[in-house]
Amino acid sequence: MDEMRSLEKKMCLSGSGLTKIFGFGNQKTLAVDHVDFNFYEGEIVSIVGESGSGKTTLAKMLLGLISLTEGEIHFQGKLRDIRSQKKKQEYWKNIQAIFQDPFSSYNIFNKIDAVLLDCIHMRGGRSLPYAKKVELMTEACSFVNLKFAELTNKYPFELSGGQMQRLMIARVFLLKPKILLADEPTSMIDASSRATILDMLMKLRDETGMTLIFITHDIGLAYFVSDSVYIMEHGKFVESGSADAVILHPREAYTQRLINDVPKIHEEWDLSTV
After folding, report:
1. Is 169:152 a contact under the CB 8 Å cutoff?
2. Which residues have C-beta within 8 Å of that of residue 245, sequence separation ≥ 6?
3. Radius of gyration (Cα) for the chain, nearest Å?
4. What is the pLDDT of residues 82-92, one digit of tens each?
């Protein structure tokens, strides 16, 4: 099946033997243990595991926020090279993230205008007339049901958690990366905002064709939004495949246990409950 899919879509991000060890000597911790993966353009992928499984550490490795102990990452078919700050900045134009805690995602000294302008400048729009920049920022805010005119000169911390997550999606709308990594993006916001955030992420994927990677403990979410699912336990991918194959026909006891924790997983899903 993977071979058929590779013929239909281009590889976006792949990893071979990715390993991360923290500490030294007797204090070593093996957080990610020789994982392999292939993510394709436009695909929705979920990496599922309980707290401590290594999924957030892997996410930081994919983003280039922490170094690899072993292994290689290929982006768009080429070995990823982020050894210089310039190359890292170029890579970050193509891979962005939304983290679970919106309150820690912003510089408290930057107003919303500066947050959005920075995205326009990253995409080469520094020399655009200011009126055009306002038009772009207004469009991005409108995409996430926010009004730029009401946000200008405000700080992100003046918004609710749900509004801050929507502002993060507006950033992604402006940046238009090839990959968006969403690490538990709805876990710290109120229930009424969760469905909205997920709907916006799916709409963003549909409009831009980006690869969307969810990092989640929720196998129910993974089943209903994903093309492919990777199950992570103790730093390893213990099972992977299409969402239907992994969830409907699990091979591993760990996967079955995650499924058992979602008793209504096979019923019609209500996004507002996630």
Report:
1. no
2. none
3. 19
4. 999 999 999 99
> What CATH number labels 1-82+217-274?
3.40.50.300
pLDDT tens figures, 237-269: 999 999 999 999 999 999 999 999 876 665 555
Owner of token pair 């912003």 = 106
From 227, 216, 226, select the one nearest 194 (Cα to Cα): 216
Name the residue with tokens 């919303």. Answer: 112
* Residue 141: CB atoms within 10 Å: 23
Q: Which two tokens stand for residue 73?
A: 């990452």
Q: E strand or H helix at 75, and its extent?
A: strand 70-75
Q: Which two tokens stand for residue 241?
A: 């495949």
Among the residue ranges 27-36, 95-104, 143-152, 260-269, the one predicted with the least confidence is 260-269
DSSP string, 127-158: TS-HHHHHHHHHHHHHHTT--HHHHTT--GGG
What residues have CB less than 8 Å from 117, skipping those under 6 apart?
Answer: 133, 137
